[in-house]
Design a protein that fits this description.
This protein has 140 residues and is mainly α. It has one domain (23-133). Helix content is 65%, strand content 0%. The protein is built from 5 helices and no strands. α1 (20-29) crosses α5, α2 runs antiparallel to α4 and α2 packs across α5. The longest helix has 32 residues, at 34-65. It is elongated.
Length: 140
Amino acid sequence: MVANPTYEVVPAPSTPYKSFREFYPFYLGEHRNKVNRTLHLVGTSGSIALGLRLAAGALPYILSLLSYHQLAGRTRKWAIDGKDAWKWALLAVVEGYGLAWIGHFFVERNRPATFKYPLYSLRGDFTLLWEVLTFQRRAW
């Protein structure tokens, strides 16, 4: 069974969360609005896709370093120039956080948990996406 299946509001505790398991029901309560959840799911998915593209772009260089020059040549079309790699990484971060923060500030009208619990919040984004993709939780 998933945590907080109805996305009910869970008041923040007076002391910091000690584990992700304690934090996650609160996280879900901060995402009651379907549009906000959708923005999070799209942003997280897009960030993952961009991260995978960045990894694929590094593959020719990694193969060359490992002396697999023939394979490196075949994958050269995927290459992302080192000068452009930071742009792809920045785009992944901006897409993920940008859409999520639009959802919080303009749709849900609450403060993102990222500001107080950045790692738990990031893990919450990935956990929510995983639960939706594996049909453990309804997105809407």
